[in-house]
C-alpha cells in the first residue's frame, strides 16, 4: 500500500510540474492536476490542503538533485555548479511559480526558507568550511557574509531585475567574491 501511495504522490507532483510548464500558477487548478495525474481531487487534498503547498512540494522534489558539493573539486568550481543550478531551478516554471507563492504567502515563505533555503545554505556553509580547512579560503572569512555575497545576487537578478543570470554573470560573480575570500597563494 505504501508503494502505491508513494507512486500516487510522485505522479501528482510530476503532473503539477508538467502543468506549470504550460500554464501559469494562477490558472493551475487542483481539478486539472487530479485529471492529469489520474486521481481524484480528494486524493490530492488528503496530502495537500491547497495548491500553494502542492506547488512547494513539487518544487522541493525538483530541487532535490543538482545541489551536491564535491569535496574533491575546487571551491570555485563547486559554487559555479551551485549557482548555475540555482539559476536554472528558479528560472524553471516550477521555480517561478514557487517564487510567486513565496512572495505572496508568509506561511509558504517560511516553509520555503526552512525546507529549501536553510538546508542548502547549511550544506554550502559546510563546503566553505571545508575550503577553509583545505587552505582555499581565508580562515577569517565570515561564512554567512560570503554566502550572502555568492547567492544574494542570483536571487536579486531573478526577483528584482527579472533576469536569469547567465554563465558570464556567474563567472564574474565568482571571480569577484573569490578574489575577496581566497587564501593567499604560497
TrEMBL record:
Database matches in Gene3D superfamilies: Homeodomain-like (1.10.10.60), Tetracycline Repressor, domain 2 (1.10.357.10)
Ranges annotated as DNA-binding: 29-48
Keyword field: DNA-binding, Transcription, Transcription regulation
Superkingdom of origin organism: Bacteria
Signal peptide as annotated in the record: none
HTH tetR-type domain residues: 6-66
Database matches in InterPro entries: Homeodomain-like_sf (IPR009057), HTH-type_TetR-like_transc_reg (IPR050109), HTH_TetR (IPR001647), Tet_transcr_reg_TetR-rel_C_sf (IPR036271), TetR_C (IPR011075)
A GO MF term: transcription cis-regulatory region binding
Protein name: HTH tetR-type domain-containing protein
Species in which this protein is naturally found: Paenibacillus borealis
Lineage: Bacteria, Bacillati, Bacillota, Bacilli, Bacillales
Amino acid at each position: 500500500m505504501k508503494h502505491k501511495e508513494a507512486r500516487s504522490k510522485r505522479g501528482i507532483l510530476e503532473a503539477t510540474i508538467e502543468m506549470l510548464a504550460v500554464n501559469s500558477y494562477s490558472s493551475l487548478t487542483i481539478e486539472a492536476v487530479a485529471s492529469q495525474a489520474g486521481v481524484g481531487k480528494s486524493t490530492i487534498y488528503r496530502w495537500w490542503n491547497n495548491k500553494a503547498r502542492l506547488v512547494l512540494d513539487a518544487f522541493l522534489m525538483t530541487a532535490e538533485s543538482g545541489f551536491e558539493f564535491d569535496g574533491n573539486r575546487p571551491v570555485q568550481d563547486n559554487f559555479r555548479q551551485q549557482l548555475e543550478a540555482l539559476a536554472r531551478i528558479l528560472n524553471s516554471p516550477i521555480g517561478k511559480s514557487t517564487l510567486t507563492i513565496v512572495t505572496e504567502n508568509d506561511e509558504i515563505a517560511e516553509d520555503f526558507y526552512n525546507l529549501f533555503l536553510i538546508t542548502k545554505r547549511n550544506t554550502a556553509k559546510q563546503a566553505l568550511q571545508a575550503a577553509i580547512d583545505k587552505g582555499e579560503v581565508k580562515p577569517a572569512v565570515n561564512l554567512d557574509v560570503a554566502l550572502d555575497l555568492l547567492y544574494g545576487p542570483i536571487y536579486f537578478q531573478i526577483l528584482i531585475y527579472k533576469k536569469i543570470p547567465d554563465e558570464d554573470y556567474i563567472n564574474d560573480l565568482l571571480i569577484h567574491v573569490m578574489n575577496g575570500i581566497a587564501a593567499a597563494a604560497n
